[in-house]
Design brief:
Helix content: 40-55%
Structural class: alpha+beta
Largest sheet: 4 strands, mixed
Order of helices and strands: HHHHHHEEEEEEEHEEHHHH
Strand content: 5-15%
Amino acid sequence: MEGPGAMTDLLYSEAESDLRAAVRSLLAGRAAPADLTARVEEAGAHDPALWKALATDIGAAGLLVPEKLGGHGASHREAAVVLEELGRAVTPVPYLTSSVVATETLLAAGAGDLAGELAAGRTVAVLAVPLSAGPGHEPADTGTVTGVADAARADVLLVVRPDGLYAVGAADVTVAPQTALDLTRPLATVTDGGGGTRVADAATARAAVRRGLLAGAGLLASEQLGVAEWCLEEAVRHTRERHQFNRPVGSFQSLKHRMARLWLEVVNARAAARSAADALATGSPEAPLAVAVAQVYCSRVAVHAAEECVQLHGGIGMTWEHPAHLYLKRAKADQIALGSAGHHKDTLAGLVDLPAPA
């Protein structure tokens, strides 16, 4: 059924399910959360071989890039599936920053050659804006940007200057690591040293950055969904195995209620995240609305799920050895990434013509 009255199918296609299986299998063997806790302080636990396997061997880096530019010509729905799985494993790879935000920015700027390099997995690019920058962000002309995610992993920085967007090699900028709450997504201060190649004029650059941040915010909801799904499943597993008074603690009614409520939230988060991904994939004019709704809802659900996971694990959930803290930190960091919930609520209010109280 096609046309303006057509119903949107948010179910996963066979191709999306196959992609999920491939990514999940890779991460299970190479990036299990239990193993990540032991090496998370080692430069963010970045594994170049894992990134190559994901980006090049599976081809995830080129999902959003058209085939004529060397990509796979897939859509945001497939990229969303990858991010769900990366969220489930809090995987420390620059997929969101390079294969989504930077790639979308370059495509919107008309820089197809560089987008093709990203699609091949040979190059990692990062848009030099704060991780907290949401759709509509206007980069300040200061030459120094703080809180840039994955900047230390980038081969190319996309720098916004008054006269346009520039692709600058990592050697031509100064990258100073910052202390981040989420050790799996390192932050840095980037100082522009000039040079580089201009890929878009000022007007095109502004529109391209908005597009990149909109796509990033929309697909971040899928990562948040993955975080919430793992936290719920791990909480259910633990409460089945943990016994008190000769019975599983998960059989206590109060805990059943908490997990049932969380399950409902995760189901709703899946609908919101899938809606945002589909709106981006189809180029729907409602994409900004769907993205705002997804971010407002999914950011809260991810944090709630991570908090419940920690609490329902009892004492072990508070330890460094258990990976629950990695999920809580990722959820809290994602809550302000690519626009806070407040930012997206303001956007949503404007889109539906619902002004805030005077």
